[in-house]
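Supplementary Methods S3. Complex input for the L-homoserine-bound model.
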Amino acid sequence: MKTISVAVAGMGNVGRETVRLLRERRAELRERLGAHLVLTAVADRDALREARALGLPASVARFTDPAAMARKSGADLFVEVLGGYDAPRRFAGEVLGRGGALVTANKRLLAYAWPELTSAAAKSGARLAFEGAVAGGVPVLRALELSFSGDRVLGVDGILNGTTNYILTRCEEGLSAEAALKEAQELGFAEKDPTLDVSGGDAAQKLCVLAGLVTGGWLKPGSFPVAGIESVSSRDVAYARERLGAAVRLVASLRFSGTAAAPRVEAGVSPTLVPLSHPLATVRREYNALLVSTASAGDLMFYGKGAGAGPTASAVLADVFVTARDILGGLTAPRPGPRKLSLVSPDDTESGFYLRLLVKDRPGALARIAGTLGRESVSIAAIHQDRAAGTTSAQVLITTHPATRGRFERARRRILSLGDASPRHCAMRILA
Ligand code: HSE
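Predicted complex, serialized as structure tokens:
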């Protein structure tokens, strides 16, 4: 029976769980693979201590430098779960440059170094797998890569960040956004510094990985609109639910067009009003979901835990298994590209919008706001004004009929420059 040797870089929570599962499930993996999957090396700053804590036999080589492990261990397959960016990038470069197979769960590495990684893999014939980088244990990447091979993926809408989904759904239950974040941190769902999550940056990196997987091209971080949930308040969440029959979710979306050889994509991350009848509205707390629209199979939704050592290690191990199977079968990676990916201008994308403004309650204020929207051909669908007793300002909540983002954004900026409304406002798109 053949043996595939595995080396794991990074002994954090995910690395430890990956090693534990790899060893615990050894017999089942051997039976299903028809080969031995053997851990032969680990790398970590504290490799000796980690190896001891995991009870690894002396036959497993210990490295403190992951790049040295890539050069010297001679493993067939390398797992990168180091965390961070620079060290994973050096490690990935070493592995792929030598034609080694790489499994990584590092969305930031994939999002920012996509051209470098995919070119290196294409040049050396290396296999690169990254199921754990998006939606944790939910097998969305394998589905996007293989299950629609005879179909065409038209677009995806995803809830790809557990922290923000936890906050938004706890707001539905009456908590303030601040209290919900604190609770998520106490429960271990949210980072101590949640900036990347709350700003939409984490979901955006995952969107880059999804776009790359489907098209083979690089959706460059920073090249498409990303808005987080900082401006969303429990008032917005309650109003959406009670008056508009919608839930607020941070939705990351891609729409594909063009051809396989010259793909085009429309991309964006934004707080979004999702009708309560829409499947994404049912996704609560720290869960992730991806709704995939295809030409033949129609719409499909993938749902599950998007983070944590168990879900991520499950995805990493699935990558290890499938990659090992491909190595044994002499199969090449089925990935398209690398190729150029063109972006559809975000200004041309169309949807309804929600706008909450704090407006000085004085004659003509509402008319000026409505007029500004009208001049940009943005048609108001509904308007609601709410003024608390003893205050001089009113909350004005507006929803619009579908309009291009460009026109809505121009109107929003002009409204804020009129001096009637406070700069602290909330704008969201409405999912049809
Ligand atoms: N911090 C992420 C989340 C998980 O809240 O979903 C890691 O990508």
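The chain has 15 helices and 17 strands. The radius of gyration is 24 Å.
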